[in-house]
Amino acid sequence: MDTLADNPEWLLVALAPLFLIMMLLEYWFGQRANRLPDSATYSLKELVCNFSLAGMHQLSDLLTGFLIAKLYLLLFGWKLFDIQMSLSMFVLLMVLQDIFYYWFHRASHRVRWMWAAHVVHHSSENMNFSTAFRQSLMYPLAGMWLFWMPLIIIGFEPNGWCL
């Protein structure tokens, strides 16, 4: 039986229901009870926009994955270590992925080319859980995939976690 450690690309799928529950709780106990500030309220228009951007982001990641899969596999041929996925390697992958994501995010604020894609994420006037779905479909063109290359060279198989 496969585990989450065997298929790290399923982490987001596994956590999606929790995130949606948190959104519903924020709406129910925050907005319906008038406990959210005006800058955090939910509106249908904003919700549709955020989810549409999330969908386009996922589609652009998928298309980019098809285009750069050969490059990732070529780099995987030069891997430094033969990593067998286990619970400890899964935890290490999550920590390293978070570190590389930090550098991607920092670069997205500092490098003009990357900021042009990232600004979509900061374009909402409301800040609630749904705002996290506001992602740019231009990340692949900005070079987001470059930040995951070190993980492949280290020896983590590029099987979905890297996009």
TrEMBL record:
**Where along the sequence do coiled-coil regions lie?**
none
Primary location group: membrane
Gene Ontology cellular component terms for the protein in this record: endomembrane system; membrane
The answer, when asked if Transmembrane helix is one of the entry's keywords, is yes
Q: Where is the Fatty acid hydroxylase domain?
A: 90-158
Localization, UniProt: Endomembrane system
Q: Which UniProt keywords apply?
A: Lipid metabolism, Membrane, Oxidoreductase, Transmembrane, Transmembrane helix
MF annotations from Gene Ontology:
glyceryl-ether monooxygenase activity; iron ion binding
Q: Membrane spanning segments where?
A: 12-29, 62-81, 87-104, 137-156
What kind of membrane protein is this, topologically? Multi-pass membrane protein
InterPro entries for this protein:
Fatty_acid_hydroxylase, Sterol_desaturase/TMEM195
GO-annotated biological processes: lipid biosynthetic process; membrane lipid metabolic process
What is the official name of this protein in its record?
A: Sterol desaturase family protein
Q: Which organism is it from?
A: Vibrio maritimus
Q: What is the lineage of its organism?
A: Bacteria, Pseudomonadati, Pseudomonadota, Gammaproteobacteria, Vibrionales
